[in-house]
Amino acid sequence: MRMSMRRFTRLTNAFSKKVENLEHSVSLHFMYYNFVRIHRTLGTTPALEAGITDKLWEVEDIVGLLD
Fold first, then answer.
1. Which of 2, 13, 48, 63 has its CA 20 to 30 A from that of 33?
2. Residue 23 in contact with residue 14, Cβ under 8 Å?
3. How many CA atoms lie within 13 A of 27 on its CB side?
4. What is the mean pLDDT of the chain?
């Protein structure tokens, strides 16, 4: 996670100064990682593999949850 999120390295403009912003960023990252990103070893997303969802999510689906 640290390698894929620039918010955890202090020397960038994306560094989170507020804990609340960091929490939101980490939540979005885990949502994308588990529901949208197809993993090479699984051949699908972890959420599909675990049976949590029955469809492949897209980023637009996550944005729709923010409303």
1. 13
2. no
3. 10
4. 82
- In the numeric block, which tokens belong to residue 25? 């960023």
Structural domain for 24, as ranges: 18-65
pTM of the model: 0.74
Determine the pLDDT at residue 21.
Answer: 80
Looking at the structure of the chain, the number of domains it has is 1
Segments of the chain with pLDDT less than 70:
1-16, 67
Return the HEC string of the chain. Answer: CCCCCHHHCCCCCCCCCCHHHHHHHHHHHHHHHHHCCCCCCCCCCHHHHHCCCCCCCCHHHHHHHCC
Residue 25's pLDDT is 83
Residue 12 placed within a domain? no
